[in-house]
Amino acid sequence: xxxxLLDSFAADQGDSARPELRAIGExxxxxxxxxxxxxxxxxxxxxxxxxxxxxxAELMAALPDLRYVGVTATGTNVVDLDxxxxxxxxxTNVPAYSTESVAQLVFAMVLHFAFDITGHDAAVKxxxxxxxxxxxxxxxxxxxxxxxxxxxxxxxxxxxxxxxxATAFGMKVIAAQVPGSSSTNRTSLDEALPxxxxxxxxCPLTPATRGLVDRRxxxxxxxxxxxxxxxxxxxxxETALQESLxxxxxxxxxxxxLGAEPPTPGHPLLDPAAPWAARLVVTPHLGWxxxxxxxxxxxxxxxxxxxxxxGQQLNRIV
Length: 318
Description:
By secondary structure, the chain is an alpha/beta fold. The protein has 12 helices and 11 strands. It folds into 2 domains: 2-97 and 291-309, Rossmann fold (3-Layer(aba) Sandwich), CATH 3.40.50; 99-282, Rossmann fold. The protein has helices at residues 9-12, 19-22, 38-42, 57-61, 81-86, 99-115, 117-125, 157-168, 189-192, 215-219, 238-246, 291-309, and strands at 2-5, 26-29, 47-50, 68-71, 90-92, 149-153, 172-176, 198-201, 226-229, 252-255, 280-282. The strands form 2 sheets. A 6-stranded parallel sheet has the order 7-6-8-9-10-11, covered by helices on one side.
C-alpha cells in the first residue's frame, strides 16, 4: 500500500519517522503541500493522510487508486465526504485526542488574566520591586476564580473537561445552549451571558455558530468578563470583538484561533500598540499540541489505517 502524508509538520514538527505507518506500507511524508502540488503528490496513493490539505471531489475523481483518507485531526471539513462516499473511499478522523491539552490552555489563559504572571515578572526584572517602597506591588487588581461563574458554550469532551477543572477551582459552571444544537437541559445564552465572569467557547463551527460572538453577544456580558475561544476562529465576529475592546468592554480576551490562519500581516487584533492590547492574548492555534496529545494523535492515525487494512472500522466517518 502506498501511503502519502500530505502535511505532517504541524503534528510532528519535523520528526517524520512514523514507524507505525511504515509498518503498514510504503510511506511518503511531505511536511507541507501547496494546492498546486496536491494532485501530483497524491497520484498512485491508496491512502492519503491530511490535516489541513483540502481533498475535493475533483481531486478524488482524478485519483482512481485512492481507497482511504485519514484526517489527522478531529474536524473533517477538509474532505468532501459526499464525494468520498460516492467513490467508496473510507474516511477516518481522530476524536478526543487533545481534550486535556485544550482544557489546560483555557485555564492558562484564565489565570493569565487573573494574575498576569508574565507582566509582574517583567516589572520585577525591570527593577520595580527593588526600587519600590513596599514589600509587594500590583500592576492591576488580582482576581480569584473561586465563586466566579463560568459559562461553557459547547459541552462536548473539551467542554466537560473544562467544567471538571473549573469545579476544582470552586467556580460555578453554567452549560449554555449552543445555537443549532438539540441538547437539552442547557441554559439559554440570553440568560447565561449576563451572569458570566468567564465565557469559554467549545462549540463546532456550523452555519448556526458562525459569527455567534457578535455585537449582541458581547453587549450581554459584564464589562469585566473574560472571553476565551479555543474552538474555531469564525465563531467570533472579529470586527465586533475589536469594537468591544476599543470601547473598553471585556476584562480580557484569550484567542487560540482566528478567522484566517495564519493571519494576514497587519491584522488589526494583533496590533501591539493598540490601547487594549494588554487585555488580549492570542496564541497560534496551539491548544491541541502538547507532546502527549500529538503522540496520541500519531498512534490513532496509524491504528485507524491498520484497522482499515484489516477490514475493520475504527473512527470511520465514511
